[in-house]
Amino acid sequence: MPSLGARCIMKKSESNDLQSVLNFFPAEVDVIRRMNVIIGAICVLVCVVGGYLLEEGNLSVIFQPVEVLIIFGAAIGSLIIMSPVKLLKEVAKGLGGVFKPKHFDTRKYVEVLSLLYEIFTRMRKEGIIAIESHVDDPGKSDIFKRYPDIVRNKRTLDFICDSIKILLTIEIPPHEFDNILEVDIEANTEESSQPFHRVAKIADALPGLGIVAAVLGVVLTMQKINEPPAVLGASIGAALVGTFLGILGSYGFVGPLATNMEHQINEEASYYHVIRIALVAYVARAIPQMAIEFARRAIPESVRPGYDELEKILKGKGKQ
């Protein structure tokens, strides 16, 4: 029986070993992901405005603050009409998430698969009841403490712990267990998709709102019908800017933002499907190594860890 000091050293060594393994898969650089949207927006503006200036266009003609107010003010009003207050907060949060995206990279997948492997191994060696205290209070678990990122992510932690609690409560067939997990993922994905759908609707509406602004500009122009051609030309040009701003706002900015939000939702759903596959495979009597391999094959290829890389990690876990 090792002394208390020896056990503390062993736990510290295991934590350091895990960190060194995760460092083998460097996390994506958050700064680059955050700047990606800003760089894209600048590129759109530079190309559109730059092309206009190259043709000796006059910037003062397309600078129409009132038309911006009409188009984007009406768009915000439409968003408020179609969305409850709770959903408006989620839309704001989703748009903010575009600039602070969650990243589901190789490191994140390796971390969750390592946790699941430790849980499966403990259940296989000591029986499923041995894991009860860990899922009831993961904050005090010697297993979960080695994965602080997962402990801080309430949804991931609840998904794993609640799923294992089902196994502790009843003996459930694999296909029924799989159905429960799928329902959980689908419900959360549907809820997460609501802000994206609202932003996409606004993107679709902007060209129409641009036409509204243009029509109002034409109405104002008709009031100047007795003015010289130069005045009428400037007024018609200002009216057409409404259509320009609506189309540019839709296809250059708001539409791409909605697509970015959708991509993040799909990435997160893929992450939980990988966890689901590992859990279901284990319930279907697969050994821990095979359950994790099932899950590894479900990881998108661009971030999937190699078989040999993951095998080395799991071998290390098996010795703990």
Summary, kept brief:
This protein is mostly helical and 320 residues long. It contains 13 helices and no strands. It has one domain (4-318).
Question: Overview of this structure, please?
Answer:
It is a single chain. This protein is an all-alpha fold. It has one domain (4-318). It contains 13 helices and no strands.
Q: Gap between N and C termini, in Å? A: 15 Å
Biggest sheet features: none
> Which word captures the global form?
elongated
**Low-pLDDT stretches:** 1-16
Q: Number of helix segments? A: 13
Q: How much helical structure, as a percent, in the residues?
A: over 70%
Tell me, rounded to a whole number, the average pLDDT.
87
Strand content: under 5%
Structural domain tally: 1
Say how many strands there are: 0
Q: From N to C, what is the helix and strand string?
A: HHHHHHHHHHHHH
- What would you call the structural class? mainly alpha
Question: In angstroms, what is the radius of gyration?
Answer: 27 Å
Strand-helix topology:
Layout: H1 4-23, H2 30-54, H3 59-62, H4 65-82, H5 85-99, H6 106-126, H7 132-136, H8 148-152, H9 154-169, H10 174-222, H11 229-283, H12 288-298, H13 307-318
Helix pairs in contact: 4-10, 4-11, 5-10, 5-11, 6-11, 6-12, 6-13, 9-11, 10-11, 11-12
